[in-house]
Design brief:
about 325 residues, alpha+beta, five-stranded mixed sheet, globular, binds ligand L5Q, binds calcium ion, binds zinc ion
């Protein structure tokens, strides 16, 4: 078997053409050879490999390949391309070597199950459903969603926030915040403070799965007074994230603040201060301390963090 890195391309979920890093592999099948162009990106310090579950649920499934340099699988095209974008973001902004900071292989599986309107990090890899064509398109078509899932991986090697109640809502919020920061980094013209908008309800315009700017737009709380005490969804982690999400939006849009300063504060808190059991108040303190470390005591940045969390009812 001989492998060499080559450039290919494919059409993504939204019909756009993307250039892809592929691995040209000559395989022997009985007494004949076949050249496969596999979705295996060897151009970065971390290998990025994209698989298909072929609408079953066994993971990771099989590596997506083509007999030409054209990958004819939109969900795989976007999963493969956007994983590289997220790797580049963490490397460029923070010098981080991928998910574990040790350049572990970045694995994504597309076509998970049938009519599956969701995506998840399973503790080892990213997994994407195809959607059902009504509630969503294939979920890997959203850069903010891929960034959300890969950030779950980063969290696992850093704070490793317990996926329940307030620490779980923080886990979700950090994934939504970095999903938004990465969208700004890579697609400034398509930047917004919503999650999943590119693939959400293809028949309905201007909607999304969640909003950081106004969580109540989709029924999520934006203040502690409206915290949702529930046992479902691990204590409402996908709804109560609205409260820290709103704080993130307020920080980034405060006078004297930028997204670039906000993402540095968030990354430092995730790596240096947050722990498994951190709750919303601990996150406020971790983010204030990170802002103090980076910009000084009583700085505009540290005060913006303090004011934002108080505005959502966290004192
Ligand atoms: C309710 C609920 C929301 C989510 C969610 O956020 N999934 C990740 C995403 F990337 F698909 F958005 N899961 O259950
Ligand atoms: Ca978005
Ligand atoms: Ca829509
Ligand atoms: Zn999540």
């Amino acid at each position: 078997i001989r492998t060499v890195s080559v450039t290919g391309s494919g059409i993504g979920v939204l019909g756009d053409t993307k250039t892809l890093n592929l691995d040209k592999v000559t395989v022997k099948i009985r007494n004949k050879t076949e050249t496969q162009y596999q979705t295996n990106d060897l151009t970065r310090s971390a290998v990025i490999t994209t698989y298909t579950a072929n609408n079953a649920t066994r993971l990771p499934g099989s590596i997506v390949y083509s007999l030409s340099q054209i990958i004819n699988d939109p969900a795989a095209v976007d999963a493969h391309y956007y994983a590289g974008v997220v790797y580049d973001y963490y490397k460029t902004k923070f010098g981080r070597n991928g998910i574990d900071n040790g350049n572990m292989t970045i694995k994504s599986t597309v076509h998970y199950s049938r009519n599956y309107v969701n995506a998840f990090w399973n503790g080892s890899q990213m997994v994407y459903g195809d959607g059902d064509g009504v509630n969503s398109l294939a979920l890997s078509g959203g850069l903010d969603i891929i960034a959300h899932e890969m950030t779950h991986g980063v969290d696992e090697y850093e704070a490793d926030l317990i996926y329940k109640d307030q620490s779980g809502a923080l886990n979700e919020s950090f994934s939504d915040c970095f999903g938004t920061f990465i969208e700004y980094f890579a697609q400034k013209n398509k930047f917004d403070w919503e999650m999943g908008e590119d693939v959400w309800t293809p028949k309905i315009a201007n909607d999304a799965l969640r909003s950081l700017q106004d969580p109540t737009k989709y029924g999520d709380p934006a203040h502690m007074n409206d915290y949702n005490y529930t046992t479902s969804d691990n204590g409402g982690v996908h709804t109560n994230c609205g409260i820290p999400n709103k704080a993130c939006y307020l920080i980034a849009t405060s006078s004297g603040m930028t997204i670039e300063k906000t993402e540095q504060i968030y990354y430092r808190a995730l790596v240096n201060y947050l722990t498994q059991s951190s709750d919303f108040k601990a996150a406020k303190e971790a983010l204030i301390q990170s802002a103090v470390d980076l910009y000084g005591v009583n700085s505009v940045e540290a005060n913006a963090v303090k004011a934002a969390f108080e505005a959502v009812g966290i004192y």
